Amino acid sequence: MDSSAGDPGDGVPSKRARTERDPYRVETMEFLVLVKSELPDDVYSHFVRSMIKIRRQRNMSIEKCKEIILEILDGQPEAIQVFEHFIQGYSPCRAKMRSKAHNFVERVKACPDISREDFHALLNVLAKYYKNEIKTSEEVLEKVERIIGNYPEFLEEFKIFVPHHLRAHLPNEKSCTSPKSSRVSETFVSFTLDAMNKLDGLRVKATNGRNQATPLKYTQDQNQNHEGRGYSLRHKQTKRTTGLIENPRKQGDDKSPHAEDDEEHKAEPLLQWSTSRENELPLKVDPSNCKHCTPSYCLLPKNCVTLQSSYQTELGRSILNDSLVSVTSGREDCYKFRTKNQYEENMFKCEDDLFESDMLLQRFRATADFIEDLQYRFGSNVKIQEHLTPLHKRCIEQLYDDSGIDMLDALSESENTSSALAVILSRLNQKIGDFSEARLSLNKMCPDTVANNYYRSLDHCSPSFKQLDMERMSPKALLAEDKQISRIKSHTDIHIHEDVGVIINYAYSRSCSTEDKPMMNWTKLVKAFVSVKFQWPDLKDTVSRRNVCEHCGMSRDFLNNIPVAVLTNEFVFSSKEVESLRAKSNESTSSLDHFDAEVEEGEFIPDVENIQLRVRCLPTNNSMHSTYGHWSGSEEHKSSRDDSNNEVGSSEYFGRTSKECDANRGISCCTLAVLCRLLQVMYERLLVAKNLSEGASTHDSYAHFKEKLCSLIDGSTDNWNFEQHCLKFLGPNSYVLFTLDKLIDRVIKQICKIYPSREDSSVLQRQERSRRTFNILKDPALPARRTNSSKELLHHQNARGTSIELPKQGREEAKGGCESHGDTGKMKQNHFQRRKKRALENGPPSFSQPGSGNQAHN
Amino acid sequence: MDPSSAGAGGNSLASASCGDAQKRRVCYFYDPEVGNYYYGQGHPMKPHRVRMTHALLAHYGLLAPAKMEVLRPLPARGIDLCRFHSDDYVAFLRAVTPETQLGQVRALRRFNIGPDCPVFDGLYAYCQTYAGASVGAAVKLNHGTHDIAINWSGGLHHAKKSEASGFCYVNDIVLAILELLKLHERVLYIDIDIHHGDGVEEAFYTTNRVMTVSFHKFGDYFPGTGDIRDIGYSEGKYYCLNVPLDDGIDDDSYQSIFKPIISKVMEMYRPGAVVLQCGADSLSGDRLGCFNLSGKGHAECVKFMRSFNVPLLLLGGGGYTIRNVARCWCYETGVALGEELQEKLPYNEYYEYFGPEYSLYVAASNMENRNTNKQLEEIKCNILDNLSKLQHAPSVQFQERIPETKLPEPDEDQEDPDERHDPDSDMVLDDHKPTGHSARSLIHNIGVKREITETETKDQHGKRLTTEHKGPEPMAEDLGSSKQAPTADANAVAVNAPGNARNEPGSSPK
C-alpha cells in the first residue's frame, strides 16, 4: 500500500471509478488486505513472490496453484479460510465479518444480565438500520449505547463495527473536495470500505435475528415491513429531488454520488424469500379502479402500495416508469387465433417428437459430462449435493424412476460418493445409448412425414378455392362475369394460346378417339375461337345498345364478324346454312335459346320472371312467322311439333316458340360467350403457371407442369399428385391450377354444344371416356388399342366421305323421336344409334332409302 | 484489435455514415447450457431453439474468430436483476422450485406464475443466463469494440417489474437498455415480434430517453395492448409508437410500413444505440403466430437496421416453430456479418428438423393478407403524424460524452500497454486490479486469474469437461472460453477457437 503513494493524483478518480464499477477488484483488494493483516511480514513477502512466479508460469494448473498457496499459508487457519472463500468467489471480508457479527449477537443473547426486552430492542435498532429507517450511524451508536451502555465490554466490541465509519466519514468528504488525495486519505478510503463491510455483516446478522423472533416479534416485523415500504416511496421522492438539485453541479461531482450509491447497493444482501413473505405482499393493482391515460395504460393512485426495488441505480430511478401500468388480456399460449390445416399439425407433431427426443438426450448427456468432470476434479471427497444443479438432479431422479428421490437422498448423505458416481455414470451412459438409438429411428421416420405434409402445410387457400371455382364455372356465373369484364384485353403471350389449343386437343383426343375428322375440326375450332379474341377490340366500335344481348352482353353482330372462311372451311355447315344461321341469330329468339340450353343442363327452373320474358317475345315470333312462310306448308312437321308441346301443356303460341328455338339450338351468342369466357379463364391460369415457374428455382418448371397436366387428363396421375407437384415446383400460390382438369372438362362440353351434329353424341362421348378409362386400367397394351382406333377412324372417314349430308338428316329425325317420348326416349335414342351403326356397316345402299325419304319430306 | 478500431467505435457514437459493404464487428453471446432448460411438455416455448441456431452457425462456419467473437455470458446477479425488477419478485424467482411452489399459491398468483410462465427446474439460473447475456452484449457495445452484439436467448419482452408474463420472467431488454443509457443519451427499441412488446414499453413509457416502436398483431390477441393511440405519457409523450397489424401480412406489405416509419424515426430521434428484438413468431407457419413473413422478409428488417451503422443489439424473442426460428436467426446472423450463406443447409445434428427441402430459407404460405393497402396507408400516416410532433432530437451535445468515454484509456495504457491488444483481457484485468496497491500486487492478481483461466480452458478443450456451476462471480474465468456440448466436435473446435486466439496476445512476453 505504501508504494501506491507514487501514483499520479489525477488518476485517482478514474481508478476509484473503475474499482467501484467492478466487484471482483474490490474483492481482490479485500482479500489482500485480510491476508496481510493475518500473516507475518516474512510470510506475506513470500506469498507475494510466489504470486509473481505463478503468473510467469502460464501453464500451471489450478490444483498446483492452490497447492503452492496453501503450503505458504500452512499454520494460518484464518488466512486459509479467507483464501478458500476468495477462490469460491465470495467476499472474504463479508464472510469473516458475518462470523464475527454472529458471534457478537450470540454472546449478547447468552448474557444473563441482559434482559430479553433489551436484546430485542438491540435487534430492532439493527433491523431499522437495515431498512434505512435509521439513516445515520451516529443514531445507531446512540441507541445501542442506551441499550447496552451498562456493559462496557459489549459496547466496546460493538464499536469495532462503528467507530471506523464515523472517523472515516470526515476525511472522505475532504478527499471529495480535493482533486489530489494524500497518502493518509487513501488509507482512510480503504478503511471506509472495510467499515462498510463490517456493517454489512452486522446487517446480515440482523436479518437472521428476525428469524428467531417470538410470535409477538413476528407481528412487529410485519408492521415494520409495512412502514418500510411506505418509507421506500418517500425515499424515492427524496432521491428524485436530490437528483434535480445535483444536476446543475459539475460532472466530476455528479460522479461521486452515483458511484457511492452503486457501492452501497452492491454491499447490501439480497432479500431472502420465505413462505411467510407471501402473506405480506400487497395485492395487485385493480385496473378497473384506475384512470386510463391511453387505451392500454392506467394511472396508479398516488397512495398505491407496490413492490419496490432497492437496487435501482440513480439512472434507473429517473427513467423507469412506476406511475402507469399496462393492462394485458389473454394468454400467449393460445392456439385459437389461426386456423391450421391438418398437414401443418402433422408437421408440428413431427417436430415435437424430435424436440422431446433431443431434450432427453441432451440433458442426460450434460449430466453425464458433469459427473465425469466431478470425478476428475474432486475424486471421492466431494459433497456432490452442493454441486449438482436442479437440472442434474432431475435427470438422476428420472434415471431411477420411482427410486429417484431415494437415490438423491442417498447421495447427499453418503460420505464416499465415488462409487455411487461411477454407478450413476454407467447408468447415464446406458440411457444415452438408448436415447441415441431412439433418435436414429426418428431420423428415419421423419423425412417421409415431412415430405408428405410440408408442401400442403403451406396451402391454406385451395379447399375454399375449389368450392368457389365450381360455382364460378357455371354458365350463369360465367355470363354474369362476362358482362362485367371489359372486352378490351391485350393477350400478348401467343404461346399460351397455343398451349390452350394443344391441351384441349389432347383432352378431346383422350375423351373420344372413334372419329378422326371431328377431332381435327375441334383443334382448328379452338384455334379459331382463340384468334377471335384478338378481334374483340374491333367489336367495340360496332357495339350499340340495341344490338347487345341482354343476357351475355355480347354483340348480336358477333357471328357476322366471324370470318366466313373460318366457319366455311372448318364446319360441316353449307354456305347456305351459315347464312341462314346468321339471319336467325339476328332475331330476338336468342333469349329463348338460352332457356333451352339451361333446360338441357338441368339447371333451369321456371319462374315468373322467365315466363314474362317468354310473353314479351311473342310479337317477334309473329313477325318471323310471316317472314318465313315456307315453313307453314309442312303440315306434317308442324303437327308432330304440336303434339309434343301439348304434352307439356303449352299453348299454340308457345308451340311456335319452341319450334323456332329448336332450329337455333346449335349455336347462340350466349353459348359462344360461355366458351370464350372459359377459354379466357384457362388462358389466365396457364399464365399464372408460367409466371410461377419463372420464379421457381427448377429449370423449365412450366414444361414439367404441362406434362403433369396431360398426365392428369389422361388419368395416369391423380389430383393429389398433381396438386403436390404444383405446390412443390410452383409454390403455394399455384392453388389456382388445382381445378384445371374440371375447367377443361367444361370447355369440352361447351364445344360440343356449339357443334350441333355432335350434340347427340355427348352421351356417347362420356360412355367412350368411361370405357376408355376402364380399358386403361385393365389393358396394359395401350399402343395396340390405339392402332385399332386408328383403323376404325380410317374406316369411318371413308364411309362418311361418300355421303356427307345424309347422316345429319338421319340424326335430326332421331332427335325428334327422342323428344316425343320423354325418359323412354333415351332408350330409344340408344336403339336408334345402334340401328345407325348397323346401317353404316351395310354400306351406301342402306343410306339411299332414308335419304330419298328425307328429300321427299323436304 | 488495433487502436484505430477503438477510434471507429468512437465514431459510431457520432453516427458516422458507412457503406453497407463495410464489415461490421460482431460479437455473439451464447451459453451452452441454455438449451437444456425445459418449460414443460407441450409448452410452446423451447430454449432448445437457441441451441439449434448455434449448431447451424457452427456448421456454416460463422463462429470462426475471423468472423465474429463468441462469448459465454456471465450470469446476471440478483442485484443486476433488481435494477428493474422488485426485490420480492427476484427473491421469489430465486427460491421457488417445482416442489415448493404448491404451497405458495398466493405468491404464484401475485407474480403471475402459472401455465404461461411455469416453474421449471433451473428457472432462476435460466433467467440469470439470458439476462446476463443481454447485459453483457450491451456492455460490449458501450466499450465500442463491436458494432453489433447478438443474444438469441434474450428478447423476453413481456416481463413486468413485479410479474412474469407471456413466457417471460426477467425483462433482459430493459436491463440492457439501462446499461446502454449509461453511455448514450437516446436509445431506440424496435420490436418485430408478432406480440406487442408491452413490458419494455411500460418500463419506458414516461421517458424521452428511450423510444419504443412495436410492430405487432392487434385485435383479440395477446397481450391485448399496443393500440395505435398508446403514444407515451408525460415526458415520454410521442416517444412510444405502436403499429397494429392484421393477419397474413406478407413481406411487401410489411416493408412498405416498416421502412418508412423507421427511416423517419432514425431521422427525428437520432438514437445513439438501437435494440432490435427479432421475435421469430412473426414468420409464416409459426405455431402461435398468424403473419405470413418469409425468412428473407423478416431478415430485411435486420438488414435495414444494420445499414444505419448505429451500435445495434440483436435479441431473440418469440418463435414457436423451432425449425423456422433456428433458420431465421442463423440467416440474420449472416446478415449482421454481411455473409451470403448458401441455401442448402450443411449437415448437423438437427438436420432432420428441416426436411424435406433442407433449405436455409423459411417459405411463406398462400394465406390471405387481411391488411389492405388502404389500412396500411392510414396507419403509416397516423404514425408519421405523431413523429412530426417530436422535438427534433433533444439538444444535448455529443461532445459532453466524449471526454468521459475516453477518460479511462490513458490510464490503461500507462498501467499495462498490452491491454489494447486484448480488450477482453482488459475486462479480466479490471476485475482484479485493486486500487492503491503496488504494481507488484497488480501483477500478482493478474497472474493468478490468468493462469486459472488458461488452465480451465485447456482442461475443457482436452477432456470436454462440463464446467462446474459455481456462483456468479467465478464465471469471469470462463469469459474467454465459451463452450458447446462435447459430442459436437466441430462445435467444440469452433467455440474454443476464439478463446485460444484471445489467449495468444496475453501470453506474449512484455
Automatic annotation (TrEMBL), chain A:
SUPFAM superfamilies linked to this entry: PAH2 domain
Compositional bias of kind Basic and acidic residues: 247-268, 633-644, 808-826
Organism in which the protein naturally occurs: Oryza rufipogon (Brownbeard rice)
Domain Histone deacetylase interacting: 289-389
Gene3D superfamilies assigned to the protein according to its UniProt record, in alphabetical order: Paired amphipathic helix (1.20.1160.11)
GO BP, sorted A to Z: negative regulation of transcription by RNA polymerase II
GO cellular component: chromatin; histone deacetylase complex
Keyword Repressor belongs to the record: yes
Bias kind Polar residues: ranges: 208-223, 845-858
Gene Ontology MF term list: transcription corepressor activity
Region of interest (Disordered), residue spans: 1-20, 204-275, 628-651, 778-858
Record-given protein name: Histone deacetylase interacting domain-containing protein
PANTHER family on file: OS05G0588700 PROTEIN, SIN3B-RELATED
Keywords: Nucleus, Repressor
One family name in Pfam for this protein: Sin3a_C
